[in-house]
Design a protein that fits this description.
The complex is a heterodimer.
Chain A lengths: L5 H19 L2 H17 L10 H19 L12 E3 L7 H19 L3 H12 L4 H8 L3 H22 L4
Helix pairs in contact in A: 1-2, 1-3, 2-3, 3-6, 4-7, 5-7, 6-7
Chain B lengths: L2 H15 L5 H13 L1 H20 L13 H5 L3 H5 L15 H39 L9 H15 L7 E6 L2 E6 L11 E10 L4 E10 L4 E11 L2 E10 L2 E8 L7 E7 L6 E8 L2 E11 H5 L1
Antiparallel strand pairs in B: 1-2, 1-4, 3-4, 3-10, 5-6, 6-7, 7-8, 9-10
Classes of the chains: A mainly alpha, B alpha+beta.
């Protein structure tokens, strides 16, 4: 099976970029890492066995790049996710309700960012990026049960954080 | 439900949501969801969590491509149960065995659909109200003056005069502009012009960026305007489409399309300015306002 022709890179780039962005919080880092992942994938395309989906294979390469990057990075990121938020207007609500909703979204985002790295990666790859636990296990190179327990832990921690932050909700 | 059961059902539901299941597995799981209250609760919680997390990270409708929409997954068995083609699975229906073979899937699908629409109900109704409000709500302080419109008419006349049959589109910015001629549509006269204005306004009322575009009215078109300005040091790109009397504008911020975020909205020419969306830059909200005004009718 031929992978990584120009059109395929064009097709998969946004999805990989988004994953990298959710995990690094920096557009520059995400852009570098996505390009790095594609370069590595092109260099090692002969290793793609044709089992599973090329996106899963690409995500695995990307996640390895992100892990290396996060290991190397000793300082906290400086660019907020906020810069890249798109907030659709909800005219059915008053500004106070909108602000409250924004607050909740911000708190949730912060809570996701503060999950431990393995838990956060498992959560982003499955819940946000939409991979099954089986696919995520392949991407992260861990057993399916590990993915399931990490995502379950993430979900419980996020629920708890949100309950603590907004007890009335 | 103990931890092992929880893990097992979560794994199966996530596979369902990710479209990573065979038709048989999907049917079995939907049947279980139909009869197992804890499974239903788990599904509801997982969808809620997913939607909230995606919203928190600014995922929009365009991102639906990352996996099959929940609606498609949950409705997948509906067609077989009712004898109509399903959305994803086409299989001949054997009428005699319908009741014995398909009722669990039908019941499960009905319940799953109810869960889905129950969860989505709030969002759906808000979205519909929002869409209607987009067109109707006016932002009165940004109305164009007759003097401005006369100025735009003059610019249009000068550029359009260079071609008898082809209408131009003209992007005006910072006292200058660029223009291009559209392909001729027939032997008739050039179309009347209209001005499409898009403003990016911060919460304190400051106009951060303006896009003024002159277009032929009543003509279907789809234009990519390229870079039309800058916001927070990032390029601002716009696309505009005209179809069925509506003007649709895509406003995107980002270095290239792959990493851009944006809003899309549409207005009916001749109506007042509408807010089509909002960008959030740090702690600041930036409203995106859109209006389309036919020059001749407004000046007449």
């Amino acid at each position: 099976m031929t992978v990584l022709e120009g059109k395929q890179i064009e097709k998969w780039y946004p999805r990989l970029f988004r994953t990298a962005l959710r995990l690094t919080g920096s557009t520059d880092d995400a852009s570098d890492l996505t390009q790095q992942a594609f370069c590595k994938a092109i260099q090692s395309r002969h290793t793609f066995a044709g089992r599973g989906l090329p996106t899963t294979w690409l995500h695995r390469i990307l996640i390895n790049c992100v892990r290396d990057h996060l290991r190397r990075k000793t300082t906290r990121r400086t660019q907020s996710f906020d810069e890249w938020d798109m907030v659709p207007v909800d005219k059915s609500e008053g500004s106070a309700e909108r602000m409250e909703k924004d607050e909740k979204m911000k708190a949730l985002r912060t809570a996701i960012e503060e999950l431990s790295q393995p838990v956060r990666i498992a959560f982003v790859v499955t819940v946000i990026d939409g991979y099954s636990y089986r696919e995520a296990a392949e991407i992260l190179d861990v057993p399916v049960g590990t993915v399931a327990s990490r995502v379950n832990l993430a979900r419980r921690e996020l629920c708890q954080t949100m309950r603590n932050a907004f007890p009335e909700a | 439900m103990d931890q092992q059961n929880t893990t097992e059902i979560e794994t199966r539901i996530q596979a369902l949501l990710a479209g990573d299941v065979s038709p048989k597995e999907r049917d079995e799981l939907l049947a279980r969801i139909a009869t197992d209250e804890l499974a239903r609760k788990t599904l509801a919680e997982m969808i809620r969590c997913r939607n909230a997390a995606r919203r928190a990270f600014g995922y929009n409708g365009a991102d639906a491509a990352i996996n099959p929409p929940v609606e498609d997954i949950l409705l997948a068995t509906e067609g077989r149960a009712s004898g109509r083609p399903g959305r994803r699975t086409l299989r001949p229906v054997v009428k005699i065995r319908w009741a014995s073979l398909f009722w669990p899937a039908a019941a499960a699908a009905a319940i799953a659909v109810a869960i889905y629409f129950g969860l989505r109900g709030q969002d759906e109704s808000s979205a519909i109200r929002d869409q209607i409000a987009k067109v109707n709500q006016a932002v009165a302080q940004w109305q164009m003056t007759a003097k401005e419109l006369a100025g735009y008419q003059k610019v249009w006349d000068e550029i359009a005069a260079s071609s008898e049959r082809r209408s131009p589109w003209i992007l005006l910015r910072d006292g200058g502009g660029r223009f291009e001629y559209l392909p001729a549509t027939g032997t008739g006269p050039q179309a009347e012009p209209m001005i499409v204005r898009c403003l990016l306004v911060s919460q304190d009322g400051t106009v951060a960026e303006t896009v003024n575009l002159l277009l032929p009215a009543h003509r279907p078109l789809d234009l990519s305007l390229g870079e039309t300005g800058q916001l927070a040091g990032l390029p601002l790109r716009c696309k505009v489409a005209a179809e069925d009397e509506w003007i649709t504008m895509d406003v995107m911020i980002g270095r290239d399309e792959a990493e851009a975020v944006g809003v899309r909205g549409r207005v009916m020419p001749g109506r007042e300015m509408s807010e089509i969306g909002q960008f959030k830059l740090g702690d600041r909200g930036m409203k995106v306002l859109l209006q389309a005004v036919p020059l001749s009718s407004s000046l007449g």
